[in-house]
Write a structure and sequence with these properties.
By secondary structure, the protein is an alpha/beta fold. The chain has one domain: Spore Coat Polysaccharide Biosynthesis Protein SpsA, Chain A (Alpha-Beta Complex), CATH 3.90.550.10. The chain contains eight helices and nine strands. It has a seven-stranded mixed β-sheet, with helices on both faces. A two-stranded parallel sheet has the order 6-9. The radius of gyration is 17 Å and the shape is globular.
Length: 238
């Protein structure tokens, strides 16, 4: 069995972190978890530190809030250094159901280099989302698919599994994007590099505890960066 690391970035997720770790290990007892905490003022890091008494749980404490992309990049580098074969992105709030992690890992075992948990392929869905959020996500993915030329239905989703070799081939030092844009960036890099990118259906469940990290700034950054990448692709600069 592949040595798997689930990376969970946190900022003010004290209400959720213990539950999500328990659910991961109920679903996949052999995987390890790395919590990457950005000095959460609500004590998330303190809770996670207590949970490291379980040798399957690890904590990376950072000095301040640096963003989702930076947290995942730090987690990727740590996981690669520790020799994990598969590295998984997962939100702390329960929106990415650990009970569906087997779908992603099975696709990796089947030969995929990167597996996206997709809300917008057949069998995927969202629960408790307002209509405008669905329109925003669907529209953003259609725009990214067209302007970037990537054959993906859900490039903005954050539930995904990478082979270590895939991450090593993506030149992560060049990645500076955050939020949805970070997810699109890694997906387009993987497609452009010729990796086998697969999508499996998931059910995305909107958080019930804690505050969403979604903001207008994240949406604006994604639109701006995706447009620039698309124009560069169209005019042959990258």
């Amino acid at each position: 069995m592949s040595k798997t690391l689930v990376i969970i970035p946190t900022f003010n997720e004290a209400l959720n972190i213990e539950s999500i770790i328990g659910r991961v290990h109920d679903a996949q007892p052999t995987v390890h978890i790395l919590v990457v905490d950005d000095n959460s003022p609500d004590g998330t890091g303190d809770i996670a530190k207590k949970l490291t008494s379980d040798e399957r749980v690890h904590l990376m404490s950072r000095a301040g809030k640096e963003g989702l992309g930076a947290a995942y990049l730090a987690g990727f580098h740590w996981g690669i250094e520790q020799g994990y074969d598969v590295l998984v992105e997962m939100d702390a709030d329960g929106s990415h159901q650990p009970e569906q992690l087997d779908r992603l890992l099975s696709a990796v075992d089947g030969g995929a280099d990167l597996v996206l948990g997709s809300r917008w392929v057949h069998g995927g869905k969202v629960v408790n989302w307002p209509r405008y959020r669905e329109w925003l996500s669907r529209g953003g993915n259609i725009y990214a698919r067209i302007i970037l030329g990537i054959p993906l239905q859900d490039a903005t989703g954050g539930y995904r599994a990478f082979r270590r070799s895939t991450l090593e081939g993506l030149n992560l030092r060049e990645v500076a994007s955050q939020g949805y844009c970070f997810q699109i960036d890694l997906a387009r890099r993987a497609v452009r590099a010729g990796f086998n990118v697969a999508e499996v259906p998931i059910t995305f469940v909107e958080r019930t505890r804690g505050e969403s990290k979604m903001s207008n700034a994240i949406v604006v950054e994604a639109l701006w960066r995706v447009t620039l990448w698309g124009l560069a692709r169209i005019f042959g600069r990258r």
